[in-house]
Amino acid sequence: MKHEEESTTDPRVIGELWEVICDRAAHPDEGSYTSRLLRDKKGIDKVLEKVGEEATEFIIAIKNKVPERTTEEAADLFFHILVALRAADIDFQEVIRELERRRK
To answer: Which of 3, 78, 83, 96 is a good FRET partner for 45, with 20 to 30 A between their CA atoms?
Structure first.
């Protein structure tokens, strides 16, 4: 792990990403990948397909010991999980609260 990079990261990016996803849901834009996912004719199944695809790619990257791909696939998986939460009308703050509860 690259601990030296931790000081330059900002966890607020997750909240900002969640806000963008919610905005795309509320104000669809055909040019937006997120809007297209949330409005796909398959409904939530389309988003869940992407979660499964990204999870598989993440696993393969780890198994193949390719750190850069692992990081990219982890970001893709995390993003698609957030979109799936929004598609299911689950507030991301509920997930954060559950993580906090488990930490105690």
So the answer is: 96
